[in-house]
Amino acid sequence: MGRAFEFRKGRKMKRWSAMAKAFTRIGKDIVMAVKEGGPNPDANSRLRAIIQNSKAVNMPKENVERAIKKATDKDTANYKEILFEGYAPHGIAILIETASDNNNRTVANIRSYFNKCNGTMGTQGSVEFMFDHTCNFRIPAAGQDIDELELEMIDFGVEEIFADDEDGILMYAPFESFGAIQKELESRGLEILSSGFDRIPQVTKELTPEQVADVEKLLEKIEEDDDVMNVFHTMLEN
Question: How many CA atoms lie within 13 A of 93 on its CB side?
Answer without folding.
Answer: 19
